[in-house]
C-alpha cells in the first residue's frame, strides 16, 4: 500500500492511524451535502446563494469517502480481524459511490439551473421541457441524497461499533473503562483483556 507517497500518507497522519482521522470528513461532509442538496432542489433562493458550495462539499465528501476507504484498507492490515471489522470493511467498499450519488444530484440541479439562467439572460423564452427536467432532477437528487447520506452514516456507525462495542475489536478497550494516566496517555482501568 505504501508504494506511493499518497498511499503512505493514508496509513498514518501525525503519528496516528489515518483512517479514524479521514473518516470524519466523509461522515460530516456527505450528510451535510445531502441536506444542502435537498435544500437547493426546490428552493431557488438557496440554490443561488449556496448551490455551488453544496456541489463543492459533495465533491470533497466523495473524495473523503474514497480516502477513508483506502486508509481503512491500510488499517485493516494492522487490526484484529473480527466480524464487526469485516462487516465495516465490506460496507465501506462502496461508500464512495454513495458519496458520488449526492454529488451527482447536486451537480445536476446546479447544471440545469445554470442552463435556465443562461437562457433567461439571453432573452430566450422558458422551455417547458426544461422545467420538467428540473423537477425530475430535483426529485432524483433528493432520493440520491437521502440514500447517499443515510448510507454514509450507516457505514460510519458500523465502524464506530467495530471499535467501541466489539469486545475483540480493533482497540480491545471498553470506552467506559478509559482513564487518563500520568503523561496524558489513555489507558484502561478495566484490567488486561485476553
Short description:
The protein is mostly helical and 194 residues long. It has helices at 5-9, 18-42, 44-76, 83-93, 95-121, 128-164, and strands at 12-13, 16-17, 178-180, 186-188.
Describe the structure.
The structure is a single chain. The chain is mostly helical and 194 residues long. It has one domain (5-188). It contains six helices and four strands. It has helices at residues 5-9, 18-42, 44-76, 83-93, 95-121, 128-164; strands at residues 12-13, 16-17, 178-180, 186-188. The strands form two sheets. The protein has a two-stranded antiparallel sheet with strand order 1-2. Strands 3-4 form a two-stranded antiparallel sheet. Strand 1 and strand 2 form a beta hairpin. Helix 2 packs antiparallel against helix 3, helix 2 (18-42) runs antiparallel to helix 6 and helix 3 runs antiparallel to helix 5. The protein is elongated, with a radius of gyration of 21 Å. The chain starts with a helix and ends in a 6-residue tail after the last strand. 34% of the residues are buried. Mean pLDDT is 83; it is low at 173-194.
Question: Using DSSP, what is the number of strands?
Answer: 4
N-to-C order of helices and strands: HEEHHHHHEE
Please give the largest β-sheet: 2 strands, antiparallel
In whole angstroms, how far apart are the ends? 30 Å
Q: Give the DSSP E fraction (strand runs of 2 or more residues).
A: 5-15%
> How would you classify the helix and strand content by structural class?
mainly alpha
- Tell me the radius of gyration: 21 Å
Number of helices: 6
